[in-house]
## 1
Amino acid sequence: MGRLDDRVAIITGSGRGIGHATALRLAEEGAAIVVNDLDPEPAQETVAEIEKNGGRAISVAANIMEAAEAKKVVDAAVAEYGKLDILINNAGTTRDNMFHNMGPDVFEFGVKVNLFTAYNMTYAAMPYMREVAKKEKTEQGQPAYNRKIVFTSSVAAITGNPGQANYTAAKGGLIALTKTLARELGPFWINVNAVAPGFIETRLTAAKKEGEDLGIPEQMRTMALMLISLGRYGRPEDVANVHAFLASPDSDYVSGVTIPVTGGQIGGM
Ligand SMILES: NC(=O)c1ccc[n+]([C@@H]2O[C@H](COP(=O)([O-])OP(=O)(O)OC[C@H]3O[C@@H](n4cnc5c(N)ncnc54)[C@H](O)[C@@H]3O)[C@@H](O)[C@H]2O)c1
């Protein structure tokens, strides 16, 4: 028996990094998985890995910055598995620059890719999560079980981070959205929480190479490590462990919180 047997979960941005580890982990716990990513190839690779481990998964390549694409992902989940129980809003990325050089295009991109992706998915999920729970409540007196929504903020939204005005504005917005939706959706037994990773080793935090958009300069990587109490960078699996808790019945009485996954980062949350 897995904690997520009979549950259906969408994990956005699960072709790589934290989303990839989370998709594998939730499948291991018994959930049927929808792997969404902008890039089809890594999404298919995640599905292949889940299937190799004996799990169930489909991939839906879609740019969920667009509302219609997000709806496509949710509809695919319901078409394949008949329902939706868990939505892990993980997709996001950085496009750094100091604020005085951050024109409206780059600011808007940061907000759309980190905040609107989560809004689009969660909005598209409402008919299958809120409406279904509401119907159960009317017919049976209470929802059949707790459904789960998780957002992905960042510790940078709490501490601030030079060069990331767009990213931190969006990630801070997700903490506020978590609290409001926890209150709106609580009566329907939909738990809404967030994770706030610190420094997790993925392509977003790899040593930055000349001319590349993603990554962090080596000097900053070294400085970041000095602030981590546990003395190591995080791994995608460290965040996946918390996602698994927030997706499972073990967190049925936890809602509206943002859990830092930072290795005890000094000055973090
Ligand atoms: N790595 C860290 O240290 C760290 C820290 C704090 C927060 N986060 C957050 O964790 C999440 C995952 O980050 P990661 O480090 O695993 O990054 P990653 O780049 O390794 O993986 C993110 C995945 O999301 C996908 N994606 C991006 N935009 C998308 C879109 N519009 N539609 C669909 N898919 C899209 C990418 O293609 C990629 O495969 C992000 O929201 C990130 O901001 C990461």
## 2
Amino acid sequence: MSHQVQRPPYAVDGESGGAAAAQLSRGFGGPVYLPGDAGYERERQAPYSDIDPRPAVVAMASDHADVQTAITTAREHGLPFSVQGTGHGTHAACNGGILLKTSEMASVLVDPDRQVARVGAGAVWEQVIAAAEPFGLAPLAGSHQSVGVAGYTLGGGVGWLGRKYGFAADSVLSAEVAGADGRLLKASADEHPDLFWALRGGGGNFGVVTSLEFRLYPVGRVYAGVAYFAAERAAETLARYRDWTADAPDELSTSVLLTRLPRAPEVPAAVRGRRVLAIQVMYAGEEEQARRALAPLWQAAGPALSETFRSSSFGAADMGGTGPAQVNLLDTLPDPVIDALVAAAARPDSPVLTAEIRHWGGAMGRPGPDAGPVGHRTVRFATVLDGWVPEVDEALRPYAAGRSFLNFLHDPARAETAYAPGDHRRLREVKRAYDPDNFFHLNYNIPPAPPRAR
Ligand SMILES: Cc1cc2nc3c(=O)[nH]c(=O)nc-3n(C[C@H](O)[C@H](O)[C@H](O)COP(=O)(O)OP(=O)(O)OC[C@H]3O[C@@H](n4cnc5c(N)ncnc54)[C@H](O)[C@@H]3O)c2cc1C
């Protein structure tokens, strides 16, 4: 299933890096940082990855013209290029090249009548949530509001409203994109529809998105929080979870975590330092309905040791979740998988600190006819582990069939596993049309399809 990432023969040497930096410094609106600058050290990092990128230059774009300049400069000097909003999803180092940062392009405009937001490439979810909330609207943000809208949405985007409204990528209405030749294109259902399709799940492979327009949804109060239970009933609770989710309403998004909580003062005293089963919930509606729907699950889990549930606005709900890690997608939650997860979490020396089992389905499995390539939409569960245990891997293998979700991958070499084979082939064709020499390759790479025979 895996393929060799095609790396173009871009030269990487100090001289071309220096010349590119000098050229950028003359024609660039935003700051340009070189090794040794305080800004360089601050901006080059990728906070959720173990890579240590050493770009020749870090360029902070102030508008789409800067983005275009950075692309054409990298091309002119034969340098590697990569784009970064927050760095939360950066797993390929841009060594010796131009690292383009978009964090200063963070405009957010909300049109309450059309229920649409238009955001700059560097906006993070917190900013969109804050701008939409006064109108009773919410975006399809994920578990952490500091995540960037662009990287999250291009990679699919699964959030706490996903079962009700679908993947964030499915809500995109249009995008402005600086392509591999630096030209600015508009992608929508009517303009460059093949590019528009590919962008909605294909990641950062097709250009630098300079702005995105997407739907917002009327979301009033939500009932949300986490409840902690004794870990001893984990296996039977997960078995009940598997059956209970079959009839769970789309308003209800849940995940079960097998986790060890730190001995930290912010952790409730009843569960501090303990191994627990945690159930995270967001219900897009009223408390009473949520409690009724959750009752069978609570019966299986036993009395809660501690819980944080409350009604709040979507933005004030304090939801957690796992970032990029070991992800697998499943059509069901078979007993051998439950047993392996519970055993791995129970081992005192386990490399897995948290194993999350997340219920998918709902609107995520009902894409519109024009939906993008977000893959494996009909799965019911995702497992996300922050460590690797061979026994868990073995138990998952027959059921997971190697499928993954782009945003939760931490290994760029597995990008192909995020797509249905037909969609991956089509993505490669769109890549050949828009980026035939794989200029945008420092990402979860989709290599261009081979050139057409004459
Ligand atoms: C703490 C944490 C929680 C998370 N929770 C969720 C979650 O609930 N649901 C979910 O779906 N994902 C989640 N993720 C994964 C997250 O969506 C991805 O890591 C995503 O890539 C982050 O996007 P970013 O723009 O913040 O990161 P960046 O590192 O800035 O960008 C990641 C990649 O996105 C592409 N990219 C970014 N900006 C652009 C642009 N303007 N144009 C073209 N390509 C671009 C590039 O390929 C880049 O390498 C989480 C990640 C973390 C760290």
